[in-house]
Design goal:
- The structure is a single chain.
- With 213 residues, the protein is mainly β.
- It has two domains: 56 residues, no CATH class; 102 residues, Galactose-binding domain-like (Jelly Rolls, Sandwich), CATH 2.60.120.260.
- The protein has two helices and 14 strands.
- It has a five-stranded antiparallel β-sheet, with no helix packed on it. Strands 7, 9, 10, 11 and 13 form a five-stranded antiparallel β-sheet that branches. Strands 6-14-8-12 form a four-stranded antiparallel β-sheet, with no helix packed on it.
- The model has no long low-confidence stretch (mean pLDDT 85).
Length: 213
């Protein structure tokens, strides 16, 4: 049998070693979990045979306009931008989250009651976007009187009953079935009761927002 030149045999041996090393790396290397100076775009293609039907549903870019800032975009099935960051100053660009306007802390203008039975003095309706809610509220009572304040969420008591004059600050779940209640209106009521012979109890919500699980 004809002898092959030694340099060719050496090359074949080196190639075999490289193939073995590559095969080992493919089978043992963990999946890629980082993207450096790149981007990831997720698309939904309704017709597998037609690439033109693909629409962007999420985009994560490590370099935004000018190549200096990252970009985060999440788009719904209709092309609406439902989540994005603010590339100029940071934070959220969308969605726009409601903020509580400054409250008048003069007690005469607070929601109040003189009733000796539980009475709703303030009420709001909010869609359920998150499973938990935090509510902070200041309470007061007229001089020489006593009373209590409680909160109802969806018809069930939310948090403890506090003595008028104390701060109510509670975080808890507002739904036991997030999948069924997502987007439904949640009625939040502030109720007060006078427990002395006479007097007035007051309550003023100063913070309310949704929370994650």
């Amino acid at each position: 049998m004809a002898m092959l030149p030694e340099d060719i045999i050496d090359r074949l041996i080196q190639m075999e070693r490289r193939i073995n090393a590559l095969s080992t790396a493919v089978n043992t290397r963990p999946p890629v979990t980082e993207i450096s100076n790149g981007s990831l775009t997720l698309k939904r293609q309704s017709d597998p045979e037609n690439p033109a039907t693909a629409v962007v549903v999420a985009q994560f870019t490590t370099s935004g306009p000018g190549g200096t800032k990252p970009v985060l975009r999440v788009v719904d099935a209709y092309g609406h931008e439902v989540l994005s960051d603010d590339i100029l100053t940071g934070g959220l660009a969308r969605p726009w989250l409601p903020m509580l306007p400054p409250q008048d802390l003069a007690s005469v203008n607070w929601p109040a009651t003189t009733a000796t039975a539980w009475t709703t003095v303030a009420q709001s309706q909010n869609p359920v976007w998150q499973p938990k809610m935090r509510l902070r509220m200041l309470t007061r009572v007229s001089s020489g009187a006593s009373g209590q304040i409680r909160v109802m969420a969806g018809g069930a008591q939310f948090g403890p009953t506090v003595a008028a004059g104390a701060v109510f600050d509670h975080t808890a779940a507002v739904t036991a079935d997030m999948q069924a209640d997502f987007g439904k209106d949640l009625t939040v009521e502030v109720q007060g009761i006078v427990t002395s012979a006479s007097g007035t109890v007051y309550a003023k919500p100063v913070l309310m927002h949704g929370r994650q699980t």
